[in-house]
Amino acid sequence: MARKKKVFIESKEERMMLTIQEVIQELLVAHDEHRDVDLNKLKTRISSKYALESSPRLVDIIAAVPLDAKNKLLPKLKAKPIRTASGVSFFFFFFFFF
């Protein structure tokens, strides 16, 4: 049996904004309830609900966080430093030698 494909009136950009808004709402509810949320699973679930091919980028979510909620959500949304294959990040290399 083939699944019926949902037809949306909204454009792809509008559906992306709806997805971002819903992700932020879910994060605020989770923060108020003091529970952890897997952000990647949340983005994937809501993106598939709106039939998007890709999930919203982290910078788009951060940019859409309301001012009154920034102090709650930004510490949880900020990207952590990533180790490179050599174990030395570019920032450290740049800072150390210049």
From TrEMBL:
GO BP term, pick one: tRNA wobble base 5-methoxycarbonylmethyl-2-thiouridinylation
Any one of the GO CC terms: nucleus
InterPro entries reported in the protein's UniProt record: ELP3 (IPR039661), ELP3-like_N (IPR056591)
Molecular function as annotated in GO: 4 iron, 4 sulfur cluster binding; metal ion binding
Domain ELP3-like N-terminal: 16-85
The entry's keywords: 4Fe-4S, Iron, Iron-sulfur, Metal-binding, S-adenosyl-L-methionine
Listed Pfam families: ELP3_N
Name recorded for this polypeptide: ELP3-like N-terminal domain-containing protein
